[in-house]
Amino acid sequence: MSAGTTRSDHLSLSQQAAPSRFTALLWGLLGLCIWSGSFVLTRFGVKSNLTAYDIIALRFSTGGLLLLPVLFKTGLGLDRLGRSGFILLVCGAGAPYALLTAIGLRFAPASQAAALTPGLMTVLVALFGIFLLKEMLPKRGWFGIALILTGAFAVASQSFESGQSYGHLAFLTAAILWAAFVIAVRRSGISALHATAIAAVISAIFYMPLYLVFFDKNITTAPLNDILTQAIYQGIFTTIIGLVAFNRAVAGLGAAAGSALSSLIPVVTMILGIIFLQEMPSLTELIATLLIISGVLCLTLIRKPR
């Protein structure tokens, strides 16, 4: 999932032949379904045969291997990112972010993860942009922030009774990491694919030894079908195809409309959660999700492509 695109993304996209609006919409819907499905599949995995550590290992070992040629071609980007930007990129789009999301899904439903994480990401990116990049936010943007925070508080208010607060805390921390990643990429101007390659390959290099030596794992006893499903979906679809689909949607629809598609992630995830996980949202969750979606739309639709 992406909370925003970088300046170089827009430049590189404008240099390509933009797809038709219908084709771009199909690309956007593909990316939307992929990222929504990632929440559901991760939730299913951590509730069944695999640990959160297993899923992250499968995701980045697969994605890192496939994106290794990209990193060889483009390099680590330290000259543009700097040391701090490089660390924020790897933490915000790599194993730390993904691990926090997976751990959170052990405690809270996929629908709550899909509502809280993208919503809070959008708020944090906007706030970081104001204070760090000196970006102005109009009144409608502040109204969007208020809607998202109201919805997030409504979701969190249920956690004290249901024991989901650990999951919500993990989602909040993951959103902070992702927002820091977006700001680092914006300031550096590197492309989305380059950033993804850095995060995936470096995560695999550092995470896999820790996973093999220290972390709990069920991968040796889990069914092969579960292992292959997580490896293919998380490593290929979530990490690579979802990114390509989002960028093609932005190329044909424009940055604001393309980014606004991410506001539909909670809805699609909620529907998939009902179908595949039998997780029925409460009335409070439904209202909170609508508030968060409205807030994300307020924040994304006010931004014009550069």
TrEMBL record:
Q: Which organism is it from?
A: Pseudochrobactrum asaccharolyticum
Q: Which keywords describe this protein according to UniProt? A: Membrane, Transmembrane, Transmembrane helix
Q: Which residues form the EamA domain?
A: 24-155, 166-300
| Gene3D superfamilies assigned to the protein according to its UniProt record, in alphabetical order | 1.10.3730.20
Q: How does it sit in the membrane?
A: Multi-pass membrane protein
Compartments in which it is found = Membrane
Q: Identify the main location.
A: membrane
- Spell out the protein name for this chain: Threonine/homoserine efflux transporter RhtA
Family, per the entry? Belongs to the EamA transporter family.
Recorded superkingdom: Bacteria
What SUPFAM superfamilies does the record tag this protein with? Multidrug resistance efflux transporter EmrE
For this record, the Gene Ontology CC terms, alphabetical, are: membrane
